[in-house]
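Lab meeting, item 3. Inverse folding demo.
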């Protein structure tokens, strides 16, 4: 269970880290579905990644915090603007302004990975991973890490 969870989290952290650099324009945000069929290979996962299983995202200091959250199907996420400037949440079929001191909430009714940005501050990006209880399973021998033959 933990290996599969951290595998998905590691992939999401990698994807977030490789996208949406400062000044880059985003024209198309898509929804990707994560399933066991499209995750292959051997991965090293950092257990200290900035990933949270919670239901709120703070907008402060021109950042979404946390940048990656994992929730269950049907959960609601609340974005709270604690900055003194306007932010937006764009992605997963929403495009909304969030004024300073206000919040926006969205209930996720589909499983998958949902990316979002602030269109005013392109360096602000985040991802919500939505899972079902069925997707949280114990690891099988097939997805266990394999030793590397160093040739000694």
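The presenter then showed the designed sequence:
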């Amino acid at each position: 269970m933990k290996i599969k969870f951290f595998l998905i989290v590691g992939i999401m952290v990698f994807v977030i880290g490789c996208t949406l650099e400062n000044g880059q324009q985003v024209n198309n945000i898509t929804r990707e579905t994560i399933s066991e069929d499209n995750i292959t290979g051997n991965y090293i996962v950092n257990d200290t990644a900035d990933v949270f299983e919670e239901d709120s995202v703070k907008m402060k200091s021109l950042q979404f915090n946390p940048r990656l959250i994992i929730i269950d199907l049907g959960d609601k996420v609340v974005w709270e603007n604690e900055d003194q400037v306007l932010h937006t949440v764009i992605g997963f079929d929403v495009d909304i302004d969030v004024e300073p001191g206000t919040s926006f909430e969205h209930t996720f009714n589909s499983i998958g990975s949902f990316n979002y940005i602030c269109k005013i501050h392109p360096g602000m990006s985040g991802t919500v991973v939505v899972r079902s209880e069925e997707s949280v399973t114990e690891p099988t021998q097939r997805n266990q890490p394999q030793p590397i033959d160093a040739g000694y």
